[in-house]
Amino acid sequence: MSWTKEEMCKRAAKELKDGYYVNLGIGIPTLVANYIPTDIKITLQSENGMLGMGPFPLKTEIDADLINAGKQTITQLPHSSYFDSASSFAMIRGGHIDVAILGALQVSQHGDLANWMVPGKMVKGMGGAMDLVAGVKKVIIIMEHNAKDGAAKLVSECSLPFTGKKVVHMVITDLGEFTVDKNGLTLTKLAPNTTIDELRAKTEAEFKIAC
User: Fold this and answer.
1) Which of 30, 61, 71, 132 sees the fewest Cβ atoms within 10 Å?
2) What 3-state DSSP class applies to 131?
3) Alpha helices in the chain (DSSP H)
4) Choosing from 7, 15, 47, 204, which is the catalytic residue?
């Protein structure tokens, strides 16, 4: 039994501390907002120009003009603020965002990230991913351990176009939790009913074990 998307997001939320400014990538990472501990104050930032995002709206609360960078409808808070995209990226590039929680197509054992393009397929654009991984203090990846065709997503070297090199600090998949540092990838927690042999069979990257 592997971790569900919700369980992966709950784990990622535990990495957030009081006072943090946090950017959540599109896809699974947006669910992290539902699991932020109630005893801490986190400010969510969106590349399209919003600081202080509220929870996802009920049907009666939907405002089509109020969206995040992934074009999902969201709600505002009493302290929410709005600004242009240039100011938003100045926050990111200036190192004012503490954590970015993103999805990935591939993560290498060195912490390289590929998450914006599959050659030959339609590309909407890289969004703010390249700026985020270069400007934030910590990058956490949440992703399925393997692609739909079974291919490994934790790889020895990325074969897809880079988003950033040596930028990932932590990876949470449905099969395990890993840290990444100058010495490479280390398994720190294994998902329930998952064996080390199973994990190795589904992982191309080399990793150490600390659990």
Assistant:
1) 71
2) helix
3) 5-13, 85-93, 129-135, 196-201
4) 47
152 CB contacts (<8 Å, ≥6 apart)? 145, 146, 202, 203, 204, 205
47 is catalytic: yes
Where does 25-66 show beta strands of DSSP type E? Answer: 43-46, 50-53
How many alpha carbons fall within 13 Å on the CB side of residue 168? 35
The values of phi and psi at residue 159, to 5°, are: -100, -10
pLDDT classification of 118: cutoffs 50, 70, 90:
confident
CATH H superfamily, domain 5-209:
Glutaconate Coenzyme A-transferase (3.40.1080.10)
For the chain, the domains span 5-209
What digits encode the pLDDT tens for the residues 52-95? 988 888 888 999 989 888 788 989 999 999 999 999 999 999 99
